[in-house]
Amino acid sequence: METWQEYVRRIIDGDVQTEASARTGVSQKTISNWLNGVGSGEGQKKPEAGNVAAFATGYQQNVLVAFVAARLLTVDQTEGMVTTRRGLVIPAPGAHSVTTVIKGTQ
Fold first, then answer.
1. Which residues contact 54 (CB under 8 A, 6 or more apart)?
2. Distance from CA of residue 28 to its chain's centroid?
3. Which residue from 9, 10, 71, 76 puts its CA 20 to 30 A from 55's CA?
4. pLDDT at 16 over 90
């Protein structure tokens, strides 16, 4: 599974930090920290959920996948959840798991 740093680098895909910040509403300093590995390693403070959701939403990515990359959720914890267009995570009664989507990023 990719680290948060790897996820951010893959999603930004060449955008400069100022572009990523403008697109997501996440501060340039926070994005810089993420790109430099802050919040990616074991024992480090995890990224804030609101920033992770804003980042994923700004790049039109699945918020649950971002939460897993940021170690805010495990793949197992996403069982039975879906995301809305606005990036909200909601339980989905009777819906298929998004585990396949998340595992597809590994």
1. 24, 25, 26, 87
2. 16
3. 76
4. yes
Interval 49-80: pLDDT, tens? 999 999 999 999 988 889 999 999 888 887 77
Q: What distance in Å separates the CA atoms of residue 83 and residue 67, rounded to the nearest whole number?
A: 11
Distance of CA 16 to CAs 3, 22, 47, Å? 20, 10, 20
Instruction: Enumerate domains of the chain plus CATH numbers.
Output: 4-103 (1.10.260)
- What does residue 93 show for φ and ψ, rounded to 5 degrees? -60, 125
* pLDDT, position 100: 39
Looking at the DSSP bridge assignments, the partners of residue 82 are 90
pTM for the full predicted model: 0.76
User: Which pLDDT score is estimated for 85?
Assistant: 58
d(CA 40, CA 69): 9
